[in-house]
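Re: the 819-residue chain
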Amino acid sequence: MKSHDSAIRIVSQYTPSDLNEADTRHQVIDQVIHDIFSWPRHRVKCEEYVKPGFLDYALLKSDDKKILLIEAKKEAFYFTLPIEWTANKSSCYITTKTLLTDANIRDAVLQVKTYCTDVGCEMAAITNGHQWIFFRTFQQGEDWRELKAFVVTELKYFSEKFSEAHNHFSYNNIVDHGSLRRLLLDKAIYNRELYYPKTRVTNYDAPVDSNRFASMLRPITDKYFGKIEVDDTIFMDNCYVNDREYDRTLTNARRVLEDSITPFLQQYNIQNFQDTDGGGGFGRRIQKSITNTKKADVLVLFGGKGVGKSTFLRRMLFHKPPQTLRKHGAIAYVDLLPDALEGQTAAETIWHQLIEQLDEDKILSSNRDELCQLFTDRFETSKSQDLFGLDHQSTEYNIRLNDLISKWKDDKKYVSKRLSNRLKSKHKFVIAIVDNTDQFSEQLQDQCFSIAQEISTHLGCLAVISMREERFHASSIHGLLDAYQNSGFHITSPQPNEVFLKRIRYVQGLLRDYPNQGDFLPDGIDIEIVNKLLRIFESEFVSQRSHLASFLTACSHGNIRLALELFRGFTISGYTNVHEMTSEQRWTLQIHQVIKPFMIPSRFFYDESASKVPNLFQIRDKSHGSHFTAVRIISFLTNRQNGRTTSFTPVAGLFDFFVENYSMREDLIANLDILLKHGLIEANNRLEKYTQSVDTLRPTSYGIYMLNSLSITFTYIELCSLDCAIGDQGVSNTISELSNDEYRHYLNHDTVNRMRSRIEKARSFIQYLKTEELRESERYGNPLGLSFTEKVRRQFEETSPAILKGAIRNAKKIVLRPQ
């Protein structure tokens, strides 16, 4: 490393002598700053006037904000350091108060501290070239003199402990990772011991399976709240939602993902379209290709995860095709489901399925004469070559011709071309669809897109491939999509409420016609129970204040496949008390009756790794993380929104804020990964993991819902407490023991004491979070102006008495209920 070589050279070249201040700066300090610290020269200001004098060095960030001021003294200006701390050490920590007992150090420190106060810089250093003292001039809630300074006692520290010095003082580490801030903060906040309550809970992985109606409901939910099969025409007609325009206002309490084209897609001229009968603008584009017999055309259908790209394609192509497509289109639909490859390569699978679809008359399995007619070009050539001179009736002729035909059939690209030409002779235009590629790896998705291009060029046909936006971003970087910028269409997700209402009402209709429609119902079904449950669900999705609809809509983040999956899990969850719900005349689901079935549908205790809902309070960087990083990220992005639509915020500003205020870069990245994965925030290119390709971010409706509503509820707080890293062993032990008590009360059917354990667990966790927030506020200040735990505490104190009363009331009902 060049900077390490520079450190070795500087140390060997300069021994303590009697250089004046100018020479010390020029010969030693300048080289340390630029050659060892690798600080860009245009990011260093020298001799800048700050009343009442001139500061020697100001080290700047990329935004020209001062991050470190350095006061330089001449080489002979000696700093007297306490021997008991510095003997045989090239670096150490010493409190600033102790260092101030030396007159030379005191004068230099107070001089540069004055400059820091005037320009608003928290960190400073003094040096005589060989000794360096780095210290903080301010820390929230602390006497700056009581803080520890980092002292480099001799120049050889930079060469002998180069890796350590580089990690502390290099330009990249200070600016990007906040290393100097970390170095000068109280070391107790780094690598502190963390405790995990769940490790001390005996039955942490215990299942919950107490919904006795689950076996009756599962066949119904699997069939009618899952994938719509294209051959089920009645179901498709009744339940497909083709009008995908919905209210995107952010003031609606049940707002959904603003599923519009992001700035990244806009720059590629991708068109949004309304999904109507006939496929809307996308369908018209296909018809245009058929009419004009356009060659080598590739269309890309963009859409988020689970928005229904495959269902849209199957419906448009097979269920309700436009007239031109029905009369003149030859559809070759390649469906790459996860098990489609079965040991084959993607290319083999795609070409094989393509040929099967193109061979609509089953020529490839017909007699040899039909095959010779299909392969007439090669057959005619073989007559004058491989078969020349052979008697057509001879065994040798027949064997050789059979071998040739087998070879021709094995040439997939040739066969597909012949089949395509055969269709064209019948005035049919080939449309090759490659679907469900987004369920495979990134490399395989790129390969599939390349194959779709090859099919289009080779057959002179239209190829359609479905793709998620984040994959398009990666492919565009590699140059795969440059020629197809104007052939993209973006489909938005349908409104979840409409999806569920259509399906609920469809099943209600089937039940009304029972037993004529009885083939879809499981044996032993209780029609009355199912009807009552469906009426409850219908009222929930109609209501503007439904916790079920709000949670489901927000949590699925526009992913209708996920929304349906969550609903299926909710319906058969052990926490969904179908008997109690259907026993009442009217039933409105409360928030706690919604959260648990969604967060832990089949578990007794919450585990983030096994849940669709993330733990917003998890410490994700063990060396230096916070329970509030995720909350701060969403708050930071939310505070930068203007008007009714969400706007994207540059990532650079987010990183600058976290590094400058909290020095938590690693924790920030870890939380960004989780928030992107679960859809609480959205990247400009819809990547679901943080990479350097993410330029801008915005909060989603799910993130705002989680921040303002879900995260402050008693149930969410109580569930997350057990799965959190806790910085206080006593609190961790309390949460563990209360969880063990809760499970014992559950086994004893003691609902009241079980609820008391849960309430105390939440109370302990909230008090701990409040202590943590106060501690961090004293250390870092409160740059976002948040008082998050106070809002949580108020919500808890308002709701917990009613929650306990409800448990007592339900316990009495159980006692009085006839057996």
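The radius of gyration is 34 Å.
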